[in-house]
Amino acid sequence: MATQIVMDRAGDTRHNFDVKNADALLKAEERFRELTGAGFTAAVRTASGETVVKRTFDPNAEETLFFPRLVGG
Amino acid sequence: MFRQLLRNAKERLRRFLSECGRRARVLRDSLRRQPDRIDPSSRFVSGFRYGYWEREARGLELLKEWLSPEQFAQYDAKSYFEVTGCHSGKRYRISRGTSMNIHELDGAGRPRVGWCFAPKGHLVAGDVMLAQKIALETDERGALAVANRFGVAGGRNTLLDY
């Protein structure tokens, strides 16, 4: 089971999906494209704990975090 | 005469503080009786699934999940954690908050300049700090390009570039 975590005003919204399910995987990929297209940054953690930004959908990522576009405060 | 004035002022101040304390207690008790009123966001945004404190707690949980063990320990002890910028290798301190909470550190670990950027939208503090951490660790230049800079003098923030 993989998870896409989207930061939002509620804290975050989590979308769990089964990577072995083709439909669910397709839906997750669409969500990835929609969010990154809307300016969200997608990040995953590697096995060593390092954070890496993903520009394309990674079906092997266990957990992908999305946060909105950055703006000056 | 001066002593008399001072006594009067003291007495007025005592009464004023006493009244403030009484009002604060009344307000606190009334809020406790109506927990919904504690949620400030409910007055601005409808349809939230979670209350204010629950959202804040969720954000902090997410942040802690993504911090390295060293950052986690630092945050737990000091309410801030440090990250290394991926391009310059500079150290940044991210303090608990949602704005003006990033300080670039000098070689001695002292804040030398402040940077202000955050994800767009009304996110909770944990989410904001996590986005700031990831941005500095993975795209430092991009983050600083949108950020506003502020000076740090005598431990207090001073706006420079607003």
Percent strand of chain B equals 15-25%
Low-confidence stretches of chain B: 35-47
Could you spell the SSE succession of chain B in H and E letters?
Answer: HHHEEEEHHEE
Mean pLDDT of chain B: 84
- What's the count of strands of chain B? 6
Estimate the global geometry of chain B from the Cα principal axes: elongated
Assign the CATH topology of chain A: Ubiquitin-like (UB roll)
What is the subunit organization of this protein?
Answer: heterodimer
Q: What is the string of SSEs of chain A from the N terminus onward? A: EEHEEEE
Strand segment count of chain A: 6
Helix content of chain A: 10-25%
The figure for the number of domains of chain A is 1
Give the biggest beta sheet of chain B.
6 strands, antiparallel
Structure, explained:
The complex is a heterodimer of chains A (73) and B (162). By secondary structure, chain A is an alpha+beta fold. Chain A has one helix at residues 22-37; strands spanning 2-8, 11-17, 41-45, 51-54, 63-67, 70-72. Chain A has one domain (2-67): Roll (Ubiquitin-like (UB roll)). In chain A, strands 2-1-5-3-4 form a 5-stranded mixed beta sheet, covered by helices on one side. In chain A, a hairpin with a 5-residue loop joins strand 3 (41-45) and strand 4 (51-54). The longest helix of chain A is centred in the middle third of the chain and has 16 residues, at 22-37. The radius of gyration of chain A is 12 Å and the shape is globular. Chain A starts with a strand and ends with a strand. The relative contact order of chain A is 0.25. The model of chain A has no long low-confidence stretch (mean pLDDT 95). Chain B is 48% helix and 20% strand. Chain B is an alpha+beta fold and 162 residues long. In chain B, strand 2 and strand 3 (102-105) form a beta hairpin. Chain B has helices at 2-33, 52-66, 69-78, 125-138, 140-146, and strands spanning 80-84, 91-95, 102-105, 111-119, 148-153, 156-159. A 6-stranded antiparallel beta sheet of chain B has the order 1-2-3-4-5-6.
